[in-house]
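Per your request, structure below.
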């Protein structure tokens, strides 16, 4: 699995006939490209995750065009909300303002870390911390009370695994510096990537439901539960920085975080 490098853009997509300055996936891609192209000197490592996320978002756009979701309008709205959480954290950090702790730790990671680790730090912040918030933003209280609709939302959430799995295959390559060991481990790393991403998304759905219950209880309860999720996501970074075959370890130990009962 290789990762997009700063300045590289392999995400050109056919015109969907919409407004490029609108609020859909195409507009998000434009915003990501602009930020990738304007990274200042000394911030090149920030582009490792951003480039990967740009390509993944383009893959979601392709899946939307291919009608791979039950409710594509909802998925696109969700994907835009999700992306904006990352873009807001990125912009805050670039301007010296406070970003959520998982993002701050990811952005402050040493440049000498392998690109894979930079990507995993970004995935941790974005999937474990941002994704439950994005889902809650596009699943209303009324939606949660409709079991048929909620099941449809859950299935579309699971279908994202297929998109991510296709990206793992498309980005197949060497994870390390090209040693024989790296080449032998590549198939295992590819399988591990799919496995831990699926596991993390299952936990995301659980955490979304926990945040929903806190939302029903009131703003203070919601903020308290969100603060718990922020701590759990930040603590996951310790696992990601441990030496060794990180993808294989995550496939066994798990990548996601789980909010405990209140």
């Amino acid at each position: 699995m290789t990762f997009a490098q700063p300045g590289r853009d392999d995400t050109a997509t056919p015109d969907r006939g919409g407004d490029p300055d609108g609020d859909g996936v195409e507009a998000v891609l434009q915003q990501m490209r602009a930020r990738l192209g304007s990274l200042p000197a000394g911030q090149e490592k920030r582009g490792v995750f951003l480039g990967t996320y740009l390509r993944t978002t383009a893959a979601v756009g392709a899946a939307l065009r291919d009608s791979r979701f039950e409710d594509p309008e909802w998925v696109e709205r969700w994907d835009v909300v999700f992306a904006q959480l990352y873009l807001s954290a990125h912009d805050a950090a670039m301007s010296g303002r406070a970003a959520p702790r998982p993002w701050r730790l990811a952005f402050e990671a040493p440049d000498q870390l392998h690109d894979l680790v930079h990507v995993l730090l970004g995935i941790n912040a974005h999937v474990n911390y941002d994704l439950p918030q994005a889902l809650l933003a596009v699943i209303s209280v009324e939606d949660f009370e409709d079991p048929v609709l909620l099941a449809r939302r859950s299935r579309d959430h699971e279908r994202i695994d297929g998109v991510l799995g296709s990206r793992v295959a498309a980005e197949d390559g060497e994870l390390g510096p090209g040693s024989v060991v790296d080449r032998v481990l590549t198939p295992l790393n590819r399988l591990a990537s799919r496995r831990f991403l699926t596991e993390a998304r299952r936990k995301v759905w659980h955490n979304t439901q926990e945040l929903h219950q806190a939302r029903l209880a009131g703003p203070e309860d919601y903020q308290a539960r969100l603060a718990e999720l922020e701590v759990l996501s930040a603590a996951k970074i310790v696992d990601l920085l441990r030496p060794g075959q990180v993808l294989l370890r995550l496939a066994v130990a798990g990548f996601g975080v789980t909010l405990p009962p209140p």
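Residues 2 and 262 are 40 Å apart (CA to CA).

Regards,
D.
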